[in-house]
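Incident log, structure service

09:12 report received: a user says their structure output differs between two submissions of the same chain.
09:20 pulled the input from the user's history:
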Amino acid sequence: MSEKFLTGKIALVTGSTSGIGLGIAKTLAQAGADIVLNGFGDHDPAMREIQSLGVKTLFHGADMRKPSDIQNMVETVEKAWGKVDILVNNAGIQHVSSIEDFPTDKWDDVIAINLSSAFHTTRWVLPGMREKNWGRIINIASVHGLVASTNKSAYVAAKHGLVGLTKVTALETATTGVTCNAICPGWVLTPLVQQQVDAKATALNVSIADATKQLLSEKEPSMQFTTPEELGALAVFLCSAAGNNVRGAAWNMDGGWAAQ
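09:34 re-ran on a clean worker, output below:
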């Protein structure tokens, strides 16, 4: 594939002002795609980083819990740039608690942002993709879309649901030029995960290196983090001609976590 083979394509990446989403957005931009960023907080640094790659950038601060915000986001992009070619459903949050102690408002937020938002974005971009007979929908699920862990009931439920939504979307678009797949990472070294490492180091009174080793050894046989850039490279592959007939896959990048 040529280095800039996505030139002229519009990619909407939710939850993309930092972490995994920003890493995927950068990789898509390096392949030539213009980028729509979404998320909370200060988005200017992410905007500047994407713009430095020589592509157009747009930001929309849709609250991914709200279907009306999601509709407005897609309509804003279509009004400004005419289309959404690539949708990366990445927005996600986490809350850790046992089932009996899980706050109902936290459950509702996790399901809304991690699962329902992907349904709403997909239903709003699909008509345009069908009209052009080309599109890529990439759902950032998790190894927790394939296996479970304790105290993560809402997250695991949402990510399993996202894998299911991926399969249904793939089947409903199977005879078209639109594909839908899920990427299922294990541990990814983002600022949020680094905070978990730092907290473990403090709690156990060990070094950051030892805390990292303990975190990875609990689940990930490779003993190494996946990077946002590696996830982005897989997303770019799925957008290429080589991904034309990859449909409904739940592609884990988890260092062997789910293979155990």
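09:41 both user submissions now match this output. Likely a transient worker issue. Closing.
09:42 reviewer note: The two ends are 34 Å apart (CA to CA). The chain has a mean pLDDT of 97.
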